[in-house]
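Dear support,

I submitted the protein below through the web form. The confirmation email said the job was done, but the results page showed an empty box. After a refresh the structure appeared. I'm attaching both so you can tell me whether what I see now is the final result or a partial one.
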Amino acid sequence: MNLEHIHERLSDGFKAFRMELSNGRRFTVPPPEFIVVGPDAVGILRKSGAVTTVDALHIVSVEDLRPKRRK
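What the results page shows now:
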């Protein structure tokens, strides 16, 4: 996947999104502070505080999360 698409998501009216990898793993990016985009990789801060590094070649899709309904 072209990392430029992720850069655009971070700078152009951010909406929470989910990335899916070639091995089927999924990572949710709720606010933009939870992701760092490098030239060839992406770092994702997990709820546990651990950082997962993903090679850009393994990102197969990025999809918007549906907004939560308010009661």
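Response: this is the final, complete result; the empty box was a page-load delay. The mean pLDDT is 89.
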